[in-house]
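User: Could you write out the 3D structure of this protein bound to flavin-adenine dinucleotide? I've included everything you need below.
Assistant: Certainly. Input first, then the structure.
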Amino acid sequence: MHARYDVVVIGAGPGGEGAAMKLVKEGRRVAVVDALGEVGGNCAHVGTIPSKALRQTVYNLSRFRRDPVLSRHSEIKTIPLAQILARAHKIVETQVGTHQRFFERNDVDLYYGKAHFEDANTLAVLTDEGVVERIGFDNAVIATGSRPYQPRDIDFSHPRVFDSDKILQLDYPVHKLIIYGAGVIGCEYASIFVGLGYKVDLVNTQPQLLSYLDDEIADALSHYLRDLGVLIRNQEEYERVETHDDHVILHLKSGKKIKADAILWCNGRAGNTETLNLEAVGLQANSRGQIAIDEQYRTAVPHVFAVGDVIGPPALASAAYDQGRCAAAHIAGSADVPRVAEVPTGIYTIPEISCIGRTEKQLTDARVPYEVGQSFFRHLARAQISGDVVGMLKILFHRDTREILGIHCFGNNSSEIVHIGQAVMNQPGNSIDYFANTTFNYPTMAEAYRVAALNGLNRLF
Ligand SMILES: Cc1cc2nc3c(=O)[nH]c(=O)nc-3n(C[C@H](O)[C@H](O)[C@H](O)COP(=O)(O)OP(=O)(O)OC[C@H]3O[C@@H](n4cnc5c(N)ncnc54)[C@H](O)[C@@H]3O)c2cc1C
């Protein structure tokens, strides 16, 4: 036995970091173990950060192209993908360095290697050098995240078959790409690759895109993705993927065939539990590799907690960090961090989407008498100045109490704009009147709230 800790955290992504930081602040001795050899988790290395960095370059490019003053003076036809990926990798490095300093400054002991349980209070860590280090613990937090689900009949080692991790290593020119799976990751990558000038076929296994969104927002996403040039094929299921040296063919159960230079598989994720030897601690994962938890993020074994993607939805970095903090608070007996309840949706397509609260359909089904206030970005001075005129903000509010029930935003910076509405919704006096009676900076995108509030209040009688 090398060392003994109050708590061992497996995984140095947002879930593990949230847990570790809270635990050290509560005076616990903490070890964090990660197989990647660096902190940041899949979030920083292959998920949120590189995909958002790529997206930003594509967004900058599209903005440049549509600005007549800039584009008249110099023309950018294409930018080599290698250069765009190199910028994304640089941002990953900076992020990893930042998080590394957080761990160091807070005296968290970091162990690099693949961990598995040996018994209820011992973790073994197999380092890259083949050494096994043993760590004793009183409590454990499993924050091992998730990975892309890979059906067995598809050869992911083929150079033209990618998942969302491997796509960051794409190193040859592609003209046409098939994206299979139109969840958040599939839609985000569709807008990235179409923005780079690729032909994109987005194959959706569902009848419409992101059906949990408000219908108007989901329709707007389909409309603008199509407008950018994405071919969306709804309600299709794969039969097989045929691979060749210079192309792939996707065979669909409907009998259709799609030929492209490469395929990006974005259909589902699985929890990282298969090598943890959970049985040794008395736990079992479900068929998706996910671990069941209670209200405090405690597993069926009382001294073991689990947070982040490994417990299933919402599978967001934002939620994972707060889940980690909440679990840590319960371990430390302080319980001063609430369970993660309402998480905003942030979808970084171009244009982006963000929502919180209930949709029109949910309110109608629940027979809640609501009213709608809308503001279209094309009418806002700030949007006209920036050129980001695509988008809208929709506020749903109770027509009697005026309580805000849902905020749905589509367009540039939606994921920031939504938080203004979220802050008001979370106040005891939650009312749409706040936006009608508060003076906002001008010109701003936040002005959309005033416009939408007045629009909605005008509908009342
Ligand atoms: C393409 C893409 C885009 C995304 N975009 C967003 C976004 O915009 N916003 C957002 O909020 N979320 C986004 N997500 C989701 C987000 O990345 C995850 O929700 C988040 O990373 C989950 O954090 P986590 O701490 O649970 O695990 P992870 O970040 O997955 O980290 C888990 C860590 O555990 C380690 N580990 C696993 N098994 C072991 C083991 N046996 N021993 C030691 N270490 C182990 C791994 O090496 C990894 O470093 C995106 C995901 C993807 C794939």
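Residues 10-16, 33-36, 41-43, 47-48, 51-52, 114-115, 143-146, 164, 185, 272, 275-276, 308-310, 315-318, 320, 346, 348 surround flavin-adenine dinucleotide (CB under 6 Å).
User: Perfect, thank you.
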